[in-house]
Amino acid sequence: MAAPDSAIGDVSTQDLNTTDLSTRDFTTLLVEERDDRVVVLLNRPEVRNAIDQQMVDELHAVCAALEQNPKVLIIAGVDGVFASGADIAQLRERRRDDALQGINSTIFVRIAKLPMPVIAALDGYCLGGGAELAYAADFRIGTPSVRIGNPETGLGILAAAGASWRLKELVGEPVAKQILLAGLVLRAEQALAVNLITEIHEAPVLMDGAHSLADRIARQDPLAVRITKSVFHAPAEAHPLIDQLAQGILFESQAKFDRMQAFLDKKTDKKAVKKTAKVSATNSDQSDGTK
């Protein structure tokens, strides 16, 4: 893909706000937009898809589009690697003011807050910032070769882009401390055992697995999915009021009436089929008895 003329911060507001990702040029991502989903491949194979400032900027552009035109997002990496971490060459030069900007944490929070679910399809290395990107997703699936963890303390820093608080919510405090404080890197089966990933697929069919999950989501009512995701992530003190308000919105949606009527019609049809079959069987028995 052709390189953009400038970083995201320099492009026009109109370009940033476009909902048509096919009109944008990306250098660190491969982006495919479909009717109900967007597929993003992290594409810096020469550094094992390490997350640099340009990739962060381009991920912001993807988020801007998905915030305006909500779709399921699938994130994966190229060449058998999800992301080996943040770009160490850039990270080495960052100072206090860079840390306070929350360069990576800001984009990961934005990804986590996208209106529709996010699926991370993991292969090979998923470390440091790459792992934190995966933690921001709603679903994580992987291949047998996945290696996921946060080795930041071995580099004299901490996992400050979400792992320090998301990870214990995902796997519990004991496992989170093994990863964050002792540098434990989980293999696929270990990650599956603690529900950090929920499915394991062989590498050639990993994306098939991601699309299968996206298909299941697509069969649900999109508005119900969006609102359920928002309610799920609401703070504890917002419940049960937020649940009741959200349900009030959905109770008035046309999709609710159409989907429930379809359910009732299907149930009625099944009863009619069973009744017809029973009558046919009874008539057949009576006919056999007269012979």
Biggest sheet architecture = 6 strands, mixed
Shape category = elongated
Strand content: 5-15%
Quaternary organisation of the protein chains = single chain
Cα-to-Cα separation, first versus last residue: 79 Å
Low-confidence stretches: 1-16
SS-based structural class?
alpha/beta
Q: Please provide the count of β strands.
A: 9
What's the arrangement of strands in the largest beta sheet? 1-2-3-4-6-9
Helix fraction, binned, reads 40-55%
Rg over CA atoms: 24 Å
- Secondary-structure element order, N to C: HEEHEHHHEEHEEHHEHEHHHH
> What's the number of helices?
13
Q: Can you give the mean pLDDT?
A: 89
List the helices and strands and how they pair.
Blueprint: H1 13-16, E1 29-33, E2 37-42, H2 53-68, E3 72-77, H3 88-93, H4 96-101, H5 103-112, E4 118-122, E5 125-127, H6 129-135, E6 139-142, E7 147-149, H7 163-171, H8 173-182, E8 185-187, H9 188-193, E9 199-200, H10 206-218, H11 222-232, H12 241-251, H13 254-289
Parallel strand pairs: 2-3, 3-4, 4-6, 5-7, 6-9
Antiparallel strand pairs: 1-2, 7-8
Write a concise synopsis of the structure shown.
The chain contains 13 helices and nine strands.
